[in-house]
Amino acid sequence: KTSRLHHPPIDYFDVFKESKEQNFYESQEAIIALCTHLQQLIRTIEDLDENQLKDEFFKLLQISLWGNKCDLSLSGGESSSQNTNVLNSLEDLKPFILLNDMEHLWSLLSNCKKTREKASATRVYIVLDNSGFELVTDLILADFLLSSELATEVHFYGKTIPWFVSDTTIHDFNWLIEQVKHSNHKWMSKCGADWEEYIKMGKWVYHNHIFWTLPHEYCAMPQVAPDLYAELQKAHLILFKGDLNYRKLTGDRKWEFSVPFHQALNGFHPAPLCTIRTLKAEIQVGLQPGQGEQLLASEPSWWTTGKYGIFQYDGPL
Q1: How many CA atoms lie within 13 A of 291 on its CB side?
Q2: What's the pLDDT tens digit per position in 55-75?
Q3: Under 8 Å between Cβ of 257 and 293
Q4: Cα angle vertex 271, ends 266, 275, to 5°?
Q5: d(C-alpha 123, C-alpha 152), whole Å
Q6: Beta bridge partners of 205
Q7: Angle 41-46-52 (CA atoms, 0-180°, nearest 5)?
Q8: What is the rounded CA–CA span in Å between residue 101 and residue 254?
Q9: Name one GO biological process term (predicted).
């Protein structure tokens, strides 16, 4: 019998590790710009009025949306790094947001903040997509949620095993925070130190669950993974990042474009939820009558190139 030493367990081997790490290193400038923006924002957050706070929230939501644009699966492993400062492109990218339910997210969370009792919690869950640059944009958003007191806890869900190319695992999550913390840029390392602190204090919690890598659509969760469904029911808001989550939320069916999102979720309603996605697969619901057909006529690949994005909300209004 050969000794285990020569055969390390394959289950933790991540064939995508190098390309994920490269994506992070190549995006350094963009990451520094975001960390600097966040740290300056946090320093003045006390002085912001409602509208300013809302504007900043919307900005960071959009950064998290466009962070989803450049994943490794779309680029066939070519460099998908983010080398421009996304903050400067937000205005130019606005016309490409096909569905924009950001207002619902603001009214939900600002309402939670106003009505929250001293000891009670507001929990936002983020079901993660890609590691590397996109994960940084998600962590920046999560930091802002705590700093602005729109949330008191952020819970993250990643994949238990290396999954679609650049999907986040616990290893990627911890590795990235470590890298950010050891950066020689003052604001970047400050972010990393803060993030580590949030984890220590239990304000950020990372969860693993095998369900996310099983073939089921999400409406099967109450039957297949009742424990996970019960956990999600504790959220005040769940953010689902990326294309694959959208496909699983809608059962990857050939829906008509104008079918309501609520209907396409097929009974999956653990808590108010919002999908933050750039379109990379041939599925989209909840559009205005004729909107999808019109796009298709003028731009046949509109729904697969990552050019368009959505914030699509389902929950009480």
Answers
A1: 13
A2: 999 999 999 999 988 655 554
A3: yes
A4: 70
A5: 6
A6: 155
A7: 65
A8: 23
A9: methylation
Residue ranges of the chain whose pLDDT lies below 50: 1-4, 75-77, 79
**Helix, strand, or coil (residue 223):** helix
Q: Give, to the nearest 10 degrees, the angle between helix 50-67 and helix 133-147.
A: 160
Distances (CA, A) of 19 to 10, 14, 134, 177: 18, 10, 14, 17
Q: pLDDT at position 82, please?
A: 67
- What Cα–Cα distance (Å) separates residue 288 from each residue in 93, 206, 313, 315? 20, 37, 15, 19
The residue ranges of every structural domain in the chain are: 18-75+84-314
Place of tokens 């339910």: 101
CATH of 18-75+84-314, one of 3.90.228.20, 3.30.1300.10, 3.40.50.10880, 3.10.350.10: 3.40.50.10880
pTM of the model: 0.94
Q: Are 135 and 170 in contact (CB under 8 A)?
A: no
